[in-house]
Automatic annotation (TrEMBL):
Pfam families: Glyco_hydro_43. One of its GO terms (molecular function) is hydrolase activity, hydrolyzing O-glycosyl compounds. SUPFAM superfamilies: Arabinanase/levansucrase/invertase. The active site is at D58 (proton acceptor), E202 (proton donor). It comes from Jejuia pallidilutea. GO terms for biological process: xylan catabolic process. Belongs to the glycosyl hydrolase 43 family. The record marks D147 as: Important for catalytic activity, responsible for pKa modulation of the active site Glu and correct orientation of both the proton donor and substrate. Keywords: Carbohydrate metabolism, Glycosidase, Hydrolase, Polysaccharide degradation, Xylan degradation. The keyword Hydrolase applies. This is Glycosyl hydrolase family 43. InterPro entries: Glyco_hydro_43, Glyco_hydro_beta-prop_sf, Glycosyl_Hydrlase_43_Enz.
Length: 317
């Protein structure tokens, strides 16, 4: 009897801990200056978390109206400052078309904002602060790839990653792709390289933990992940380890991962909250935990108490 009570107590405590920290979604419909913040690229700068998001319009029925970028900021992952739209690339004479998932990287005193325009052309803006104001760092695309993400290794070498799902780069098919960036952060330093044996759809992200490199991407309608001993694993490719998510809720999965105050977090999007849809998404996050061998423990999606969900829409496959 005592053991049964002890087990029930442990399970209840675990549930309460998980429930009590849940902050999802980050922004709530009805809040002042609410926006649909999608494709969250989380970064840690100056002991604060900054989440760089694409912007779904309130009336969006597809992704063609995506045209600017949002920044969310927090120093505790409980209270968030919504900076709203901070970058409007269409104000640049050379940037046009659909502007989907971005990323930001810091080097040599500058924050570099990598944004797609025309879906796969990669432009760059820069700023002296994590939130702007942003100025043109280039006057044309620096490369073509889908859903760019930038990672700077411990030795200062910068890399850019993405998928060739909408670009014909390298081997036929859709794979995790990577390339070096020059020290100026606005030019490739070599060709794009294929990093995965398996095919992916989109949303590539890279992070490093305990000397291992992790690559995440949408595979089917879930987040798959790979591990490698180098940032450009080509011989052999990065090893596919399985899935981080069991499912995805009414939105194509797009994710990022950070370590903040000795805890890892997984940021993602969902379309079943805030009166959202497949094309009106909201940023969320969960704790990210690892097994002793470095593999990732699959996450469970959570919502803050009282948050209502819409009926999920089955994605078109």
């Amino acid at each position: 009897m005592f053991e049964n009570k002890k087990i029930i107590g442990v399970l209840l405590f675990s549930f309460l801990v998980q429930w009590s920290w849940s902050q999802n979604p980050i922004l709530r419909l009805g809040d002042k200056d609410f926006v649909y913040a999608a494709d969250p690229a989380a970064e840690v700068y100056n002991d604060k978390v900054y989440v760089y998001c694409s912007h779904d319009q309130d009336t969006a029925v597809n992704y063609s109206t995506m045209q600017d970028y949002i920044v969310l900021e927090s120093d505790d992952l409980k209270t968030w400052k919504n900076h709203g739209v901070v970058l409007k690339p269409r104000e640049y004479s050379w940037a046009h078309g659909q502007m989907n998932a971005p990323d930001v990287a810091y080097k040599n005193g500058w924050y570099y904002f990598y944004f797609p325009y025309n879906k796969t052309y990669i432009g760059v803006a820069k700023s002296k602060t994590p939130v702007g104001p942003w100025e043109e760092a280039v006057t044309d695309k620096i490369t073509t790839i889908f859903d760019p993400t930038v990672f700077i290794d411990d030795d200062g070498q910068a890399y850019i990653f993405g998928s060739d799902s909408k670009e014909d780069i390298g081997d036929k098919g859709r794979h995790v792709m990577g390339a070096k960036l020059k020290d100026n952060m606005i030019e490739l330093d070599g060709p794009w390289m294929r990093l995965s044996e398996e095919t992916v759809a989109e949303a590539v992200h890279c992070f490093k933990r305990n000397g291992k490199y992790y690559f995440m991407a949408r595979k089917g309608w879930r987040t798959g992940y790979w591990m490698a001993d180098s940032p450009l694993p080509t011989t052999p490719y990065a090893e596919f380890k399985g899935y981080i998510t069991k499912r995805q809720i009414d939105a194509p999965t797009h994710m990022s991962a950070i370590e903040f105050k000795n805890q890892w977090y997984y940021f993602y999007q969902r379309g079943d909250v805030n009166n959202g849809t497949f094309h009106r998404r909201s940023a969320c996050f969960e704790k990210l935990e690892f097994n002793d061998d470095g593999t990732i423990i699959p996450i469970e999606y959570t919502l803050d108490k009282g948050v209502k969900t819409n009926k999920p829409v089955t994605p078109i496959k």
